[in-house]
Amino acid sequence: MPSDSPNQKPKLKLAIYWGAACGGCCVSVLDTHEKLLDIVAAADLVFWPIAMDIKYKDVEALPDKSIDVTLFNGAVRNSENKHIAQVLRNKSKILVAYGACAYMGGIPGLANFHTRDEIFKRVYEETESTVNPEKIKPQTEYAVKEGNLHIPEMFNDVYTLNQVVEVDYFIPGCPPQSERLLEVFTAIASGAQLPPKGSVVGANEKTNCDECKRKKSDNKVIKKFYRPWEIEDDKETCFLEQGVICMGPATRGGCGVRCIAGNSPCRGCYGPPAAASDPGAKMMSAIGTMIDADSSEEIDKIIDTIVDPAGLFYRFSLPSSILGRKII
Amino acid sequence: MNFRPTIVAFLCNWCAYTGADLAGTSRMRYAPNIRIIRVMCSGRIEPTFILTAFQQGADGVLVCGCHPGDCHYQTGNYKCLRRFKLIEKYIAQMGIEPERLKLEWISASEGKQFAELVNEMTKAILNAGPSKIKSTLEVKHLKS
Amino acid sequence: MEEPRIGVYICWCGTNIAKMVDVEAVAAEVGNLPNVVLAKTYKYMCSDPGQDLIIKDIHGHHLNRVIVAACSPRLHELTFRNAVEKAGINPYLFEMANIREQDSWVHTDRSEATKKAIDLVNAAIHRVRFHEPLQKRSVNVDPATLIIGGGISGMVAALEIANAGKQVYLVEKADRLGGHVARFDLTFPHLSSAKQMIRPIIQRVENHPNIEVFKQSVIKNVSGYIGNFKALVQNGQPEPLELTFGNIIAATGLKPFDPSKIEEYGYGKFPDVVTSMEFEEMLASGKVLTRYGKEPRNIAIIHCVGSRSKVYHEYCSRTCCMVALKFVNQIRAGLPDCNIFEIYADMRAYGKGCEEFYAETTHRQIIFLMFDQHEKLPVIRQADRTDDCNMLIEMDEKLSGESIEVPVDMVVLMVNMEAHDDVKDVVHEIGVSLCGNQFFIEKHPKLDPVATTTGGVYIVGTCQGPKDIPDSVAQARASAARILATIAQGSVAVEVTTAFVNEDFCCGCQTCIRVCPYTAISYNEDKKASEVNEVLCKGCGTCGSACPSGAITSKHFTDHQILSEIEGIMSMSYKEI
User: Fold this and answer.
1) Which residues contact A121 (CB under 8 A, 6 or more apart)?
2) Chain B partners of C73 at a C-beta cutoff of 8 Å?
3) I need a labelling partner for C478 at 20 to 30 A (CA). Which of A318, C173, C366, C377 fits?
4) Best CA proximity match to A226, nearest among A248, A249, A245
5) How many C-beta atoms lie closer than 10 Å to residue B67's C-beta?
6) Higher pLDDT residue, A190 or B64?
7) Is B81 an interface residue toward A (CB < 8 Å)?
8) Looking at the complex, does the CB of residue A324 fall below 8 Å from at least one CB of chain B?
9) Measured between CB atoms, which of C101, C113, C573 is closest to B57?
10) Is the pLDDT of residue C535 over 90?
C-alpha cells in the first residue's frame, strides 16, 4: 500500500450497506475480481456489514458528509433500514441506490402484494411446521429481567431507498454487473464531472433489444403466450416472436443481455427505460398491443395465457410502480 | 362526510368526445362527477394513464372510443381493447374493484347513451365507496 | 424551456356557461396557481373583442401560453389558435377547457358545475405547461389522378378531371369499360336507354388525350401520401408499370348478391328463377323467354332478396324497388298479356320522379302482393303437372292476411347490391376502412361523403353504399371538384400532431411497425431504429402507446402532457370550495 504523502490524493471514504437484501449486490463488488484491489487502492471502506465488524454507533459518530460514497443496496423494509438510510444520507456526500432492491424495491418488493399482518399470520401461525399455539408475533419491545429488548419494526410496505431519503444516483441491476460498478467507481474516483443528481448510472440509454443478439422482425403479433419451458426455443428468434414474454424492450440495457445469451427471457431487473418511469405499465401496453385478436372473446382467451401480469411485469419494481402496492 | 366521487374519463376525439358534446348540445343531464380528458384515438390510451388516474385518487376510470370497425384511424380502438383487458386483469390483482374501471364504445351520435353511461357508472362508484387508494397511499410516504 | 406565463380566460358564453358555472369564482380560484399570470372572464371569448383581448394581453403581459375555458374545442380551438398566432405565439401553445357542452349544459347543481370547471381549468393549466411549439407543414401535389374502376362513376370523374387539363389513369379490372350500367337496358324513372347514355361516355374516355385507360388491370403496392402517391399497374404484361399521382378515387362499384344462399327461392335449382341482372340482360337482348324457349305467361318479381334481412344484409339496397317497376313497365310493353306479380315488402320510391313513376305503374294491370320478410319469405316450388304454369310461389299475403299460391313461369329476384369480394385488398392498398357491410367508409356521413380519413383518397359510387346513377354521378363530380381544387392550390397541409421516434431511446424491437394502419412507421436497418414518415402519420398516437421503451412521442399528446392533465384534474379534488 503506498504510504500517505503530501502529493498523494486522499483515499475516498466508501461505505456499502444492505437493507432488505440477499447479499448478491455485495457479492457483485467481490465479482470485480482482481479489480477489487484497484477499488481498495482508491478507497477506504468505512462501513460494510457483510465484511467488516464496524458498529452502528461508530457510523453515527462520523461527521456529516464525511463519507464520500455510500452504496446502499437492498430495500427499506423495517425501521432499522430506514434509520440507517437516514444516517447514511447525513453522513454521505454521494448516496447511491445500488441494485434493483434499493432502486425499485426488488424481489423483497413483492411483499407489497400483502400486508404485514397477512405475512405474519402466514409465517408465524399457518406454516406447516410452525408450532405457535399462542399465535405470538414479533414484538418491537419485550421486557426481560435485564431490561427492555428492542427489535426493528417491520413496516407494512416495502420502500425503495428514494421513497425514504434523497438519493443522488441509481445503479440498477440484480445485481448490477460488476463492470458497470467499476465504470461508475472509476468515474467518481477520478474526480470527473458527474451526471446530474438523480441520474441512473452504470447503464445504457437504450433498452435491452439494442444489444440483444437474437433476430428481430416486425412479426410482433401473438396468438398465445407461452411460459419459457413450454416452447422449443430456436435460440435465434426474439422471444416475443416465439410467444414468450421477455421484458427486454422495456428494460434499461447495461447488463450485457446475459440472461438472453443464456436462452432465458429478460425479467426486467435493470428497471425502467430512460424515457419512462413505470416499466411494467409500458411493457403491459406493448404486450397488449401485440395480442393478435380483435374480438372480446378471443382477446380474453389469449390473456388467459398470461398467468400473473402483476408479478410478471413488476417482478423487481412493485414498490416503485405507479400503484406501489396492492390496495388494502 | 358525504362521498363525492371523481371519475376520470378518456374519450377519443372523433366518436366518444363528439358524443359527449352531443349530450351537451341536446341538454341531457348527467352526474357532475366525471372529468373528461380528450385524446385523438382510444389507441393512445395506455396503462400508465389509467394507473396514474387511480394513483392520483380517482374513484373510477372510464375509457371510451369508437365502436369496433368504425375507428377514425381504422384499428386504434382494437389496440385499446386489447390493452384494456390486460389492465383489467392487473388491477384485479392489485385489489382495485372491477367496477371502478370501465370501457364502453360511444359513437358520435350517441349523446343519450353517453349520459346514461355516466349516470350508471357514477351510481356504481357511489356504491363501491371512495377509492381505497387514498387511504393506502397515506400509509406510504415516509420521507421526512 | 422558458418559464410558462399563462393567461387564463373563462368565457361566460352569454348565459350559456355563466348561468350554471360561477365563472368569477373559477377565475379567482385559478388566478393564484403557479405560472398563471392572469385569469379573467369575458362574455363572448370567440367574438372579435374577445380574441382581441387575448392578443392585447399576450403583448401587454408577455404571455407565452393561453387557456380558454369555454365551449368544446371541436368548435373554436382553431379560432383561438389563429388568434394566438396573430399575436406571435405558436398556435400549439394554446389549450381549451370544455366547460359548456361537457359542464354547464349537462349539470344542474351550480356548486358542482363550478367545482368541475375549476378542475378542468386546472387540468388545462397543468397540461399547457408541457406544450411545445409545432410547425405547420405542407407538401406539393402531383397533378395526376388515379381512378380505380371504369364504371359510370369512375368514367364521369375521369372526364371531369381530364377536361380540366389534368392527367388521369383509369384502371379497370374487366376487359371493357362501363361497369354494370353498360349491361342495363333502360333506366328508371324515365325508361331511357342506358346504352345510349353510357356509350358516348365510354368513347370520350377512351379517346381523351388526358386519360390513360388500363383494362384487365389491377393496382398493387400503393405507397406514399396525399399529393405524392406511387403504385404498380398489373395488366398481364411481364413488367408491371409504375405510376405516380397525387390523388386516388376508388370507384370499384358493386357486386350483385348471390341468391343461391336463400333456399326458399330455389335459385340454381329452377332455371327460370333469375336475378335482376340476368333479367336485365334478357331485356337488353330483346328476348324474354323461359328455358323452354317460350314467352312466359306469368312473371313474378320478388323484392328485397338479400336485403333488410338479419340473416343476409340488414341494409336496404335503395334502387331495387324502382328497377322492379322499370321491369314491370318493360314486361307490360313487350308482353301485353303476361300476368305480372309484384311481390314486395315495401315500395321505396323517394327519388326525383319516382313516386310518380310508381303511381303510373299501378295502372298497368299489375298485381301487387305484399309479404312480411321478418315473418316468412315466399317459397318457390315446382308446379304440379296438372298446374298451368312452371312454378308456384307460396306466400302469406300481408294486406289480405291470406295464404296464397301464385302461378309463375319466370321469377325475377331483385337481388341486393353488395360490396365486391376483393374490397379488402383494395382498402389495404389505399388505406381506407370498411364498414360492417364492407362498403368504404366516408370521412363524415353528413358533411363529407366522398372524402375519406386518408388524405387524397376519395370514394364514389356504389362502393361507398347502394345508390342510383344520379347519386353516383353527383359523387363522381364532387370528388373531381375536390381533387381539382387541391391541384389548383399546388400544395396541401399535413397533420402536425404526428409521432416522432427518439433514436437515442429506440431499441429496435419493432413492436410499433405493424401497429400503424397508414404504414407510417418503418424500421431503418442502418440506424437500427424505427422512423416515422411524418406526412403519412395521422397522429392517432397508437404507436406512442405501443412503444415499450417510451421512445415514441405523440406530439401534442405526450405522456407528460396527459399525465399532468390527470394530475391537474385530481389535485384540487380534496379541497372543499
Assistant:
1) none
2) 38
3) C173
4) A245
5) 14
6) B64
7) yes
8) yes
9) C573
10) no
